Structure formats: structure tokens, C-alpha cells
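Lecture notes, part 5. Sequence design as translation. It can be helpful to think of inverse folding as translation between two languages: the language of shapes and the language of residues. The source text, in C-alpha cells, appears below.
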């Protein structure tokens, strides 16, 4: 008999549907890795590049379609984490470098993923216990000094109030 500690972790891809934004990517879906918790819930295990309103660690409910795809139907338990997307300005001081973006934010210990070489957007996982005021100040400074553009894909009340 397996104990809870020995149970294998089942990772699944949970798909999100959204309306594409004008001037943004033409996609209307994004698949995020998640750890399956029950037959219809999973904990998001990576940072979204396109989907708003969800962050790594959030628990979502999903429905599985006839093709076996798991489609998100709502967030049921927020983690308190945030998702921030940063795009370096190609003509700015960082020269469009995702690595330079990571280096500027490294003092905060944020994990992030790069969208791709052609579009070096970095999606950062901002834990609930991160230094929100410090991160927000650096993001604002970077925008003002022409390092990057950024957006908050998922923010909490604590983030907005910081």
C-alpha cells in the first residue's frame, strides 16, 4: 500500500481560453502545466505568458473534453502569488535581453520563463511573501528609464496596496 508521501505526482496541461488582445499575440488559448489534485482540480505549476487572472500555485477547476484536454473553468483557490510579464525595450539599455531583465530582478529571487528568442518576454513568478514595494519600484524605474515594458498578469490586493 502506498502512503501519501509515495503517491506519484501527476502533471497535466490545463488549457485556458481568452479573447486575444488587439496588437498582442493572436492566440486565444494557453496551456499551463499543473499538478492534478482531484478529478477536476489542479494546482498551476508554471507562470502564464498570456492568461490573465491566474498565477503559479493557484488552484483551478477544469473539465476534461472528449479529446482528453483539460479546460479551466475557474480559479477556486488563489495562492497569493502574482504573475508579472516584462519585455525589454530592444533599443533600450538592456538591448532586448531577457538575461539582462533576469539580472535586474535577481535581487528579489524571482523565478521566470522566457517566451522565446524572437520575443524575449519574461514571465515572472512573484511569491506571496516577496518584497512587493521593492519589485514595484524597480519595475517603475525600468519603465521610466526605458529598460522595459511590463504588465501585471495576476496581482493580489497585497500587490496593488504595496
Amino acid at each position: 500500500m502506498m502512503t501519501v508521501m509515495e503517491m506519484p505526482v501527476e502533471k497535466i496541461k490545463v488549457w485556458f481560453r481568452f479573447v486575444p488582445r488587439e496588437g498582442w499575440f493572436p492566440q486565444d488559448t494557453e496551456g499551463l502545466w499543473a499538478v492534478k489534485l482531484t478529478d477536476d482540480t489542479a494546482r498551476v505549476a508554471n507562470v502564464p505568458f498570456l492568461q490573465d487572472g491566474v498565477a503559479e500555485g493557484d488552484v483551478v477547476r477544469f473539465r476534461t473534453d472528449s479529446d482528453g484536454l483539460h479546460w479551466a473553468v475557474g480559479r477556486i483557490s488563489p495562492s497569493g502569488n502574482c504573475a508579472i510579464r516584462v519585455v525589454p525595450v530592444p533599443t533600450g539599455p538592456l538591448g532586448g535581453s531577457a538575461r539582462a531583465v533576469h539580472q535586474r530582478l535577481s535581487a528579489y529571487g524571482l523565478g521566470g520563463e522566457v517566451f522565446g528568442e524572437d520575443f524575449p518576454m519574461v514571465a515572472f513568478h512573484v511569491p506571496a511573501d516577496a518584497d512587493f514595494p521593492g519589485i514595484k519600484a524597480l519595475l517603475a524605474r525600468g519603465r521610466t528609464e526605458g529598460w522595459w515594458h511590463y504588465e501585471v498578469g495576476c496581482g493580489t490586493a497585497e500587490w496593488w496596496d504595496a
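The translated text above is only one of many valid answers, since several sequences can fold into similar shapes. Strands lie at 11-17, 29-36, 41-44, 59-64, 70-77, 82-88, 111-114, 122-126, 148-154.
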